[in-house]
Amino acid sequence: MSHIVVKDLSKTFYLSERTSGLWGSVRGLFDRKTKAVQALKGISFSVEPGELVGYIGPNGAGKSTTIKILSGILVPSGGTCLIGGRTPWKDRIQHVGRIGVVFGQRTQLWWDLPVIESFELLRDIYRVPESVYRSTCAEMIELLNLESLLNTPVRQLSLGQRMRCDFAAAMLHRPDILFLDEPTIGLDAVSKLSVRKFIKSLNQGHQVTTILTTHDMDDIEALCDRVIIIGNGEILCDGSLAKLRSQVSSRRYLKIDLKTDQFQFETPGVSVLNQEGHTITLAFDPLQISAATLIQKITERYEVEDLFVENPPIEEIVAELYRGAR
Ligand SMILES: Nc1ncnc2c1ncn2[C@@H]1O[C@H](COP(=O)(O)OP(=O)(O)OP(=O)(O)O)[C@@H](O)[C@H]1O
């Protein structure tokens, strides 16, 4: 049975429109105009237990709105959502006890308290039994290398250190579902790697069902077998990275290092994308010519030092899908 089932979920925000100037403000007191923003236009998807799904889309697409509804913070305008049999905004108390949420832009730790005291407060709020708290806390301290940070007030932590503590805080009550909203935003390369390693170990070791929103395509490549792309409040694509690639373009690249810089090659389905000295990048359509045939044709005519076939970078594919969604 699916862990998360979302059906026809919609959310409309109503914003009051202000007219500029003093007269506009006075008129607004009597004649208030509102504007509807349809953040979600009936989205549906389901997530199986233990899946790690990337949820991506351009700015304003509806990602945070979805995560807020799934975590019970917002009530949708229409549609249904069942998570482990619970409706998040109706069964809020049971629901928050089963989920962990990490927002990259916000912390759930107490700014002025040492990290360990925030952990203890969360233990009390979630009513985590002492033995479970002790063993989970010890595991998180070890996995995230937190020992030296425990007595530091949160405000004195670097962003990377704070994110590691936030991950531990989100796991203290042993949730079986994690919602991660931009968990690597603003982190340096080393911290990003350690956060990714941690997300992977939670998902694989503890079978935590995870939905991850991110603008960092390296997060997606490193972590997600499946991606859901949302644009303008609608789901544009749902499937594996391979499906995503094939939906947008079948184009692939062949990069070759030749002994010569004299290169002339014309074959249907193949174009020279770039040449820098002895290194040439060809784009080819595998439906017109296979990689094996292309390599054979080139090696018949040129002495090749090195070559490799590449898929288009995921950024390129996602940018193409986003363009269609704006
Ligand atoms: N509280 C709110 N009141 C009014 N409009 C809102 C509110 N929250 C979100 N919106 C609007 O809903 C739409 C979707 O916003 P949302 O924050 O879900 O996008 P997002 O995909 O998370 O974007 P980003 O990548 O920039 O964080 C946007 O048009 C946004 O302006």
TrEMBL record:
Coiled-coil region list: none
PANTHER family attached to this UniProt entry: ABC TRANSPORTER ATP-BINDING PROTEIN, ABC-TRANSPORT PROTEIN, ATP-BINDING COMPONENT
Segments crossing the lipid bilayer: none
Repeat in keyword set: no
Gene3D superfamilies listed in its UniProt record: P-loop containing nucleotide triphosphate hydrolases
InterPro entries, A to Z: AAA+_ATPase, ABC_transporter-like_ATP-bd, ABC_transporter_ATP-binding, P-loop_NTPase
Domain ABC transporter: 4-257
SUPFAM superfamilies: P-loop containing nucleoside triphosphate hydrolases (SSF52540)
Name of the protein in question: Sulfate-transporting ATPase
Record-linked Pfam families: ABC_tran
Alphabetically ordered keywords of this record: ATP-binding, Nucleotide-binding, Transport
Gene Ontology molecular-function annotations: ATP binding; ATP hydrolysis activity
Family matches, as PROSITE patterns: ABC_TRANSPORTER_2
